[in-house]
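Read as amino acids, tokens; as here:

___
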Amino acid sequence: MSFDSGPLDRYLSAAVGDDAAMALDLRSAFTGSARDLADLMRRARCDANWEVAALRLKGLAATFGIVALIELAEQAIAGAPGDPLVLRRINEAIDGIA
């Protein structure tokens, strides 16, 4: 799966300008939060927990306009809780941002 981190890069550039260290810190914070939410999805033991974590991931991705991650979160919400294929794709997308 290819990933376009352009939207995140544009948001970071607008927020911190040429401060590369700050942009790296913010990117790390974003990916850390996304990984935490993917882990919550992995550990979800009921449909509601899966859906809440997926909705939060969708909201986080939407904040930065990361369409691929938004779409994956929507697939998770529409699909079966615990779907390993969706989880793998979500983790791959997050890895592509880091």
Notes: The mean pLDDT is 88.
